[in-house]
Design goal:
Blueprint (H helix, E strand, L loop, with lengths): L9 H32 L15 H11 L3 H7 L1
């Protein structure tokens, strides 16, 4: 007869948390890359995308970006 009762699930939970953390990090890096491309194509510095990592500042940057005059559009109109 087998007396295995399942043991402590802490190791399994730690592994799951580590895997979820890596997936979360990959998603964040991917979105920063996307916003870098968007800011660059609009004529702004791609470094602005790093401001999206700061809580509350990210909301302000997106609102500013939506209503700002894009240098790329000004250049295209001339």
């Amino acid at each position: 007869m087998n007396d295995y009762s399942g043991g402590d699930p802490t190791a399994a939970m730690a592994g799951m948390m580590g895997a979820m953390g890596l997936v979360w990090l990959a998603v964040v890096v991917f979105f920063i890359f996307l916003y870098w491309k968007i800011f660059s194509k609009a004529g702004f510095s791609g470094w602005l995308s790093l401001l999206l990592l700061v809580p509350l500042v990210n909301f302000i940057v997106i609102i500013w970006f939506a209503f700002a005059d894009w240098p790329a559009l000004k250049k295209a109109q001339t």
